[in-house]
Amino acid sequence: MRGYAVAIWKHQHVAEPTQLPAEQAAGYWLETLRAGAAIERHLRPVKLNYLTPGNTQPHLHTHIVPRYPEDPLPGRPFPFDFLDNGRQPEEQLQADVLALRTTVAGG
Hints:
Layout: E1 5-8, H1 22-43, E2 47-51, E3 61-67, H2 90-106
Antiparallel strand pairs: 1-3, 2-3
Helix pairs in contact: 1-2
């Protein structure tokens, strides 16, 4: 899925955002939202979903899932098994990474 990303808390282990002091929680969400904003500006999805499940990997992380008009289940939760189908070419992925980094740095 083009633009799909995961924001991962890189400091001490916590399973929930509520376990962070307010300043760290604010920083985590600000960085997550910056990544989402870059995806919106570069790829223009219809919607972004932010998912922080932690059921199988109990360390704070948030899936940033762009939703497009050709979405496999519009209006419903995203089917994560879809992420394994139709992966984009490596060249496209690298071009998107570069563009997103430039977008985040510039804005």
